[in-house]
Request: fold
Amino acid sequence: MRAAAIQMNSGSDVTANLALADSLLAEAAADGCVLAVLPENFALMPERGTDKAKYAEQPGEGPIQSFLADAAQRHGLWVVAGSMPLVSPEIASERVYGACPVYDPDGEARALYRKIHLFDVDLVDEKESYRESRSMYPGDDLVTVDSPCGRIGLSICYDLRFPEMFRKLVDDGATIFTVPAAFTETTGKAHWHTLLRARAIENLAYVIASGQYGRHPDSRSTFGHSLICDPWGRILAERAEGNGVVAADIDPQLPIKLRSEFPALTNRRLR
Reply:
């Protein structure tokens, strides 16, 4: 089974972003991929985080989700749709869910994950400050979904720093983690590769990490380096910069084989 991590430099023009996503999904399909993962905020990286509220959709309704369902069907792909804005319980506010819907090749919605961990961080030495909680509402539920490549454990960006979340996804049968992200350039240089490889190694799972890259309308710079990592921590494919597709072959049986031969997960004593 071949899978793809799609890298983008999304901006404030939703129509342009969707057109770029469509062309990259087509490229993944032409390369023989059965699964493609879009990056966080693939449809919109606005000048202000609160601008996402203007484009927030109800689950199963709206132009972004219609595009995703249509693209999955046209290209014959399982699409893990990075993240997009969905309406939160605070309907009258500017806070939205960062949500990751999953579509099958028939264009049917198969899962929906809402980002649990919000990026509220001060990088004092770099004079950078981030407050996702001002424009986003946190989700509560872990989500896994079966695909031809294995059972996918869904996550989004900052979730990557919480290993207990990934262990819970493994306990629910996940053999692949998808990590759509918009990692800052600063934190990406320091931690991106280490964190992704750690989540793969400690859980004996594939990791498909799709990133935003470059400069965005809010003057934020993201790290890129979209990659696919195998359950032994080996990077199978990577792209540092540029819009494009990173593809690699996934063996759905490899995590099962490794977990049998190297039973670190069953040897756990603290849960």
